[in-house]
Design brief:
The chain folds into two domains: about 120 residues, Adp-ribosylation factor-like protein 2-binding protein fold (Up-down Bundle); about 180 residues, Calycin beta-barrel core domain (Lipocalin). Helix content is about 35%, strand content about 25%. It contains nine helices and eleven strands. The strands form two sheets. The chain has an eight-stranded antiparallel beta sheet. Strand 6 and strand 7 form a beta hairpin. The termini are far apart.
Length: about 300
């Protein structure tokens, strides 16, 4: 079996609902120890290193199951991954579990998950719908019944994602797994926090400030400058220094309630100088925190 074919099968297995469910459970149970800074001397806490070793032991056990399912040896799979890793561009699109075999990536993802866990806990049972017209705060899970595989494939191609990663995600049941939105207010200095988990990319946290440019990492780990700009009808963000493509590229994000207050649409509009505008939408259902009431408004975010 060719190396790329084997790595693609590994990535498909590693983005399946069954495996990602087990991975999420493992990481979520252990991520809280990463909710603190490192040691004063710059070293990493010992329990972080112990968790990393435990993760690799757990992952080895999972990989043995994969090897048996495809009739390949553990060494063959390891060599295929090592060869593919030499291509830095495609490494960016490796599933989270593969990138986390590197300690820095593992620690970064565990810290992101710790923040997500804290944010989820704070949002559960919180009063919702109190900030108008941007009543989109809450916990949202992907509506898998409305997944658009062709839309995902076209979107990733537009973003420059390599074929093998697009093939994996086209057959996934969801692209964005879940999102937590916390709108603290719509006045200058208030914050808007987005915590979301994407297939392949792991957990990301965007903490935006109304009226001020702040650094936020995009999916490629590159810093972009983004600010939230509310107006009478929407919440939007503006971004500059967006290094996804050469030339001027922008990405608009709209979050709005679809018909009732417990359904959310995340609509993304991509604009590149060399291609027509592209739009992709994903749908979400409210999880916990009670039902919202009040006016249904559209919130937009452009970055």
């Amino acid at each position: 079996m060719a190396n790329l074919e084997l790595v693609t099968k590994l990535a498909e297995w590693g983005t399946s609902d069954e495996f990602t469910g087990e991975l999420d459970q493992w990481m979520d149970l252990r991520c809280t120890i990463f909710d603190r800074d490192g040691n004063e001397d710059g070293s990493q806490p010992l329990d972080w290193g112990a968790a990393f070793q435990e993760y690799n032991t757990w992952l080895d056990g999972q990989l043995e199951k994969f090897c048996a399912s495809v009739g390949a040896g553990h060494e063959e799979v390891s060599m295929a991954v090592a060869e593919t890793l030499e291509n830095g561009r495609e490494t960016e699109f490796f599933p989270e579990f593969m990138r986390c075999t590197e300690y820095d990536e593992f620690a970064a993802q565990m810290r992101q998950r710790a923040v997500k866990t804290k944010t989820l806990t704070a949002q559960k049972g919180a009063n919702v719908g109190t900030i108008q017209p941007y009543d989109i705060s809450g916990i949202w899970a992907a509506d898998k019944s409305k997944m658009d595989p062709d839309g995902v494939d076209k979107t990733l191609a537009y973003m420059g994602c390599p074929f093998f990663a697009r093939k994996i995600l086209k057959h996934a049941s969801k692209f964005v797994q879940d999102i937590v939105i916390v709108v603290d207010g719509n006045k200058p200095g208030d914050t808007v926090t987005l915590v979301y988990t994407l297939q392949l990319f792991g957990t990301s946290i965007d903490k935006l400030t109304v009226g001020e440019f702040v650094p936020v990492k995009n999916l490629w780990g590159k810093w972009i400058e983004t600010k939230a700009c509310p107006d009478d009808e929407c919440f939007r963000t503006e971004a500059r220094k967006h290094p996804v493509h050469e030339g001027t590229t922008s990405k608009g994000r709209w979050f709005f309630l679809d018909g009732d207050t417990n359904r959310l649409v995340w609509e993304t509009t991509f604009k590149r100088p060399d291609q027509p505008e592209h739009v992709y939408s994903q749908y979400f259902l409210r999880q916990g925190g009670g039902e919202k009431s009040g006016a249904v408004r559209r919130a937009s975010m452009i970055n």
